[in-house]
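Friendly challenge for the regulars: who can give me the structure tokens for this chain first? No prize, just bragging rights.
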Amino acid sequence: MTMTTSEHSSPAGCMQHHHVGPLSIYIDRYAFRLVKEGYRQSSVWRYSRLTADFSLWLELYRIDVCDLDEKVVARYLADRANQRSRQSGDRAALKKLLEVLRDVDVIAPQAPTELSACERHFADFADYLARELGLVPGTIASHRSTVRLFLQEEGVLSTGDFTRLDQAVVIGFVERHANDHSPGATRHMCSSLRAFLRYLRWNGWITLDLAGSVPTVRRWRQATLPTYLSAEQVQQVLDGCNRQCAVGRRDFAILMLLARLGLRANEVATLTLDDFDWRSGQVLINGKGRQRTPMPLPRDIGTAITDYLRDGRPKSDSRRLFLRDAVPHVGFATPGSIFKVANSALRRAGIKGFAHMGAHLFRHSLATELLRAGASLTEIGQLLRHRHHDTTRLYAKVDIDMLRRVSPGWPGDVR
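First reply, four minutes later:
Bragging rights claimed.
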């Protein structure tokens, strides 16, 4: 598709003077990409001027377009910085230019980044987790920090260094970092270390079963109470969204899915337009363990989502339901973005005093409210898609009246 300059020109006139140097024939294509991804007209104009200046620089130094890569861009930006102050976004703008040129095979694909020794080992470990164990990318990524720290502290550079590992090394690592985080995070650290040590033995790089020497972090099941919001507090958070603006409509739809359906952050972040069957009033949820579960879509949630689709969602080729407000308008990169939406909404509503101020708080709140309304634990477990009944039993502890009725009296006490 070809776009004329008049479609993205500034109010002052056209962009003909930007068509200079060896990049001149690609300026329109580049500007069209920026417009398509939602950049403002002023940004399209500024980045096109930057590209024109870059084009003249290439002409000055007799650099062919086909030789462009990240190193050439870095040279240009360094040279430009000596003559004028560098503006925010210059590097990203030229990175986008390289993407456009690669899309039409004008320049070579980006050379793979040279990985450090730690990153190479983790890449191989990640491939093992995906290929042999069938783990999803999010679970694999959660092991990264532990493996990187372990390799760095033990000075592992090559596969030959793995032969130096023994029980004392493994136990020492866990002891040094056992108190760095919460008990739950420490358990996850130990789980990641065990998985990595099993991988080393599977590859034949170690002969001892060092995974068995990783200490166990004791954590009593059901030892804690779930934290939750009252129904009034949940409504207060929802009412705090400014639904007169696009971001407010998006955040309101996200919060409705968290509060009314009890979805997890990752389940909301990965929703696509194709997951909705508007005729039957259902939405397909991509849950933990690669579960794909159809769920009914209540009218109030459907209304919130359609309001966002009609008057809030930016134009984009992305099939993700919820998009970033900033350009380029693409889906959220991680579930952390949903956490930020929930956290901001809670703080905006003046909610304080909870250890975990994020998306999961709404899930706990929904389960607690359903229990108090008379729903059974089985029904709650089905709604929240728990794979184990023990997970749902956690919520039985918040029904204080029921616990008083079944608790035995203290010896000698009159009930």
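The chain has 18 helices and three strands. The radius of gyration is 27 Å. Your move, everyone else.
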